[in-house]
Design brief:
The protein is built from 20 helices and 25 strands. By secondary structure, the protein is an alpha/beta fold.
C-alpha cells in the first residue's frame, strides 16, 4: 500500500517546491537585518520595501495621531490601541470565544520534518484539526505544532512548534516558537513569533504587540503593520501584477464557497467562477453534439452496470499513480507521463462529466431530449446542487468520479454486433441489445442508427405478481412528512456522537439511497406503510435511487418547496419524484415491507 502513496508524496513535494520558488526571489531581496533593525527596537518603519514599486504598493494602517507621537510602548493599554487590533489582545479573548470555538477534541498527531516536507503521523503531542478551528487557550502550552486544515488557528497561549492554517486564518496573541503560516487566509500577529510570519494569498497584519524574530513575508496580499510592531528579519511583500491581486478572487472563492463546502458561490470577485462554469456547460453540450452516441453509451453504462462503473473508477484512481511512476522509470515514457497521460485523464474526466449531466437530463425528460439539450438540463440541475453547502462539494466530486468510471468502463466493455433474435432480447452487455432508460432493448440498424425494438411476447405462464404498482393509492403530504421525520430523527440520534454537523444531510441521503435500492422504503416508510415505486413499475435501481436523492437536495434548497409540492400536485409527487420518475404509495398491511 505504501507504494501507492509514494507518487502522492512526490507530488506534494513538487507542489511545495513550486511555492518556494515563487516566494524565493522575493525573500532573496530582503534587506539585511542590520539595515532594517535600528539600534533600539522602540520604533521601526511601517514596511521595509523591496524597491520603489513595492514601496508604493504597501499600505499603512496606523492612525495619524500615533504616527506623529513617534514611539509607543508595546504594552500600552487597550484604550490606546487602534480599534482594528483591540480584539487581537488577550482582553478580547472572551469576545473571540463567543465568535467561535473549537468543538470536540482534536485528534493528536505526531509529525517529523525533513526540510520543508512535512509528514503527518498519529500519536504525538501535535494538535491537528480538519474542517474545524484549532485553539490554544491562554495559559496552555502545546509541545508541538498546531495545524488547521480548512479552519482557523488561534494561539492565545504558547506552542513550541509551528502554527499553520491551510484555507483558514491564523491569529497569534500568545507565543509561537517556530514559524506562523497561513495559506489562502489572513495571518494576524499581536504576540511573539520566534520564526517567520508568512501569509500566502492573504493579508499579513502586525499589531502593536507583534514581535517577529524572523521575516514577515506576504505573497499575493498586503502587509498591514503597526508602527510599534517589531520585525527583526525585515518584511517582504510579493504582488502578483499591478491591478490584479491574486488573493482577492481566490480568497472570495474560499470564503463564500470552499470554506462552506461548495464549489460554486455567489459574491464579490466571483464573476470569473461563473464565466468558467457557463463555458464548461457549453463545452459539455458541444461534446454531446459531436459525440451523441458516446455520451449516451457512457450514461447507460452507469444505469446498466453501476458496480462495474464504480470499480472501474476506483481501480483507475489507484493504478494511475503507479502507471505514472513506471513511465518515469522507463525514461522513454517521460513525455507520455508528463504530457499525454495528464491530458488524456482530463479529457476522459470531462467526457464522463458530460455523460452524467446528459444522463440526469434524460432521466428527467424520460429520454425524449437530444443529448446536447439533456446535458444543459442536467447541468443546470447539478449546478444548482453545487450551491448547497457541504453537499455541493461532495456532489461535485461524486459526479466527476462516476463520470470517469463511466468512460473507463465503456472503453473496457466491447459492443457485440447484433446477431439474429438474440440481439433483440436485450442480453447482458452494452451496445446492441442493451436496454434503454425506458426499458426497451436498443439495437443498431445497418445504417448505424439506434432504434428501440418492442419486447417479444412469450406464452410462458407466470405466477401471479405481488409487486407493488404505481396504480396503488398515493401517499399524501402529512404521512410522508411523518415518515421523513422518523428517518431524520433516527439519523440525528446515530450521528449525534460523531458531531457530524452539516454531514447529517449526506448521511441521510446515503441511508435513503441504500434503503430505496434494497427495500424500496426506509424505516420511517415501514412504520408508516409507505413504499417508493417507479412510474413504469420497474424495480428501483441504483441510478433511480441516486437521482432521487440528489433531487431531494434540489427540493430542499428552495425553502423545501419541492417537498411541499406533494400537497398541491394532482399526482401526489414531489419535485424529486418527478425528476426520478417515482412516486410513494400506501401499502396494505397484507403485504410485508421488511
Amino acid at each position: 500500500m505504501k507504494k501507492f502513496f509514494r507518487p502522492f508524496n512526490t507530488g506534494c513535494a513538487a507542489a511545495l517546491f513550486l511555492a518556494l520558488v515563487l516566494t524565493g526571489p522575493a525573500q532573496d531581496q530582503t534587506a539585511p537585518v542590520s539595515d532594517t533593525l535600528p539600534p533600539a527596537p522602540a520604533l521601526l518603519p511601517a514596511v521595509q520595501p523591496l524597491d520603489e514599486a513595492a514601496d508604493n504598493s504597501l499600505t499603512e494602517t496606523v492612525p495619524a495621531a500615533e504616527s506623529a507621537s513617534g514611539s509607543a510602548d508595546s504594552s500600552a493599554p487597550d484604550d490606546a490601541m487602534p480599534p482594528e487590533f483591540r480584539r487581537l489582545d488577550s482582553a478580547g479573548a472572551a469576545e473571540e470565544e463567543e465568535a467561535g470555538s473549537n468543538e470536540g477534541e482534536n485528534s493528536p498527531a505526531r509529525r517529523s520534518t525533513r526540510g520543508k516536507l512535512v509528514v503527518v503521523d498519529h500519536g504525538g503531542s501535535d494538535r491537528v484539526a480538519l474542517f474545524n478551528d484549532n485553539r490554544v487557550e491562554e495559559g496552555e502550552t502545546i509541545e508541538g505544532d498546531v495545524v488547521s486544515i480548512i479552519g482557523d488557528t488561534f494561539i492565545d497561549g504558547e506552542t513550541t512548534g509551528d502554527a499553520v492554517a491551510v484555507m483558514g486564518n491564523v491569529i497569534i496573541n500568545g507565543t509561537a516558537e517556530q514559524n506562523v503560516v497561513a495559506v489562502m487566509g489572513s495571518n494576524t500577529i499581536n504576540g511573539t513569533v520566534q520564526g517567520d510570519a508568512i501569509a500566502v494569498m492573504g493579508d499579513l497584519t502586525l499589531g502593536p504587540k507583534a514581535i517577529v524574530t524572523g521575516k514577515a513575508v506576504c505573497v499575493g496580499g498586503e502587509i498591514h503593520r503597526d508602527l510599534t510592531a517589531i520585525v527583526e528579519g525585515g518584511t517582504v511583500q510579493k504582488e502578483i501584477g499591478q491591478d490584479f491581486r491574486l488573493g482577492a478572487p481566490l480568497t472570495a472563492w474560499w470564503m463564500h464557497g470552499l470554506k462552506l463546502g461548495r464549489p460554486l458561490a455567489i459574491g464579490a470577485h466571483l464573476a470569473w467562477l461563473w464565466i468558467i462554469t457557463v463555458g464548461m456547460l457549453a463545452f459539455y453540450a458541444l461534446l454531446a453534439l459531436v459525440f451523441p452516441r458516446g455520451i449516451r453509451k457512457c450514461g447507460d453504462m452507469l444505469v446498466q452496470r453501476p458496480v462495474m462503473t464504480v470499480m472501474s473508477a476506483l481501480l483507475s484512481v489507484l493504478a494511475l499513480p503507479v502507471l505514472f511512476v513506471l513511465l518515469l522509470i522507463t525514461v522513454i515514457g517521460i513525455p507520455v507521463a508528463l504530457l499525454v497521460l495528464p491530458v488524456g485523464i482530463l479529457l476522459l474526466a470531462l467526457f464522463g462529466k458530460a455523460a452524467i449531466y446528459a444522463l440526469v437530463g434524460r432521466l428527467l425528460s424520460r429520454d425524449r431530449l437530444p443529448p446536447a439539450l439533456a446535458v444543459l438540463v442536467g447541468g443546470l440541475i447539478l449546478v444548482a446542487l453545487y450551491l448547497v453547502p457541504f453537499v455541493g462539494l461532495v456532489a461535485s466530486l461524486f459526479v466527476s468520479f462516476l463520470g470517469f468510471g463511466c468512460v473507463v468502463a465503456t472503453l473496457l466493455t466491447p459492443s457485440p454486433k447484433a446477431a439474429g433474435p438474440a440481439a433483440a432480447t436485450g442480453v447482458a452487455g452494452f451496445g446492441q441489445g442493451a436496454p434503454s432508460l425506458s426499458g426497451t432493448p436498443l439495437v443498431e440498424s445497418e445504417a448505424g442508427a439506434t432504434i428501440e425494438v418492442p419486447p417479444v411476447l412469450t406464452t410462458t405462464p407466470t405466477a401471479p405478481s405481488t409487486a407493488l404498482s404505481s396504480a396503488m393509492p398515493r401517499a399524501g403530504f402529512w404521512i410522508r412528512t411523518g415518515a421523513l421525520a422518523i428517518d431524520g430523527l433516527l439519523i440525528a440520534v446515530v450521528s449525534g456522537p460523531l458531531h457530524a454537523g452539516p454531514a447529517v444531510l449526506l448521511l441521510l441521503a446515503t441511508y435513503a439511497v441504500l434503503m430505496w435500492k434494497h427495500k424500496g422504503t426506509t424505516i420511517g416508510g415501514i412504520i408508516c406503510r409507505l413504499k417508493v415505486v417507479r412510474l413504469d413499475d420497474r424495480p428501483v435501481d441504483w441510478s433511480t435511487a441516486i437521482v432521487r436523492a440528489l433531487g431531494c437536495f434540489l427540493s430542499l434548497i428552495v425553502a423545501g418547496l419541492g417537498f411541499i409540492w406533494v400537497a398541491f400536485d394532482d399526482e401526489k409527487q414531489s419535485w424529486h419524484d418527478k425528476i426520478a420518475g417515482t412516486t410513494v404509495v400506501k401499502v396494505p398491511r397484507s403485504i410485508s415491507l421488511v
